[in-house]
Amino acid sequence: MGEDFLFTDKQIQGPNDFKGGLSDNLYNNPVITQYILTSWIETESFTGYNVFGYLGSYKRTEEQDKQVESLLRSEGFTIRRIAKFLISKEGRHFADSLTHKSINEALKNFL
Question: β-strands 40-42, 47-49: how paired?
């Protein structure tokens, strides 16, 4: 995991900026689209998308997204189940664990 983080040098402009390397089929699943659409907040100190889980991790890369989706599908996860995982607190803990482990090693703790 390295220098091509999805969010490092750009501000999130809209919901499609969270797609990264996820397939259209997964990213357009209603679980994800509804989650992102309802994550918009406006306060005195912040206006923008308040996205959590793996999906909101600032350490994602497009290649990593593709690998995660592929591995979860190979484990028999449905698109809906993957979508739920990607927006969950477990998904965020998984994303955070990737700094110390490979994707395969990290997923073992969450499957």
Answer: antiparallel
Dihedral angle over CA of 79, 48, 12, 16, nearest 10: 30
Q: What is the pTM of this model?
A: 0.84
Number of residues that make up the chain: 111
What CA–CA distance (Å, rounded) separates 44 from 53?
24
pLDDT at 11 over 90: no
Q: Show me where the domains of the chain are located.
A: 22-108
- Measured between alpha carbons, how far is 80 from 30 in angstroms, rounded to an integer? 8
Residue 1 has pLDDT above 50, yes or no: no
Task: Of 14, 33, 47, give the one whose Cα is nearest residue 86.
Answer: 33
DSSP assignment letter at 55: G
Q: Where are the alpha helices (DSSP H) in the chain?
A: 24-27, 30-37, 62-74, 79-86, 89-97, 103-108
Q: Is the pLDDT of residue 15 over 50?
A: yes
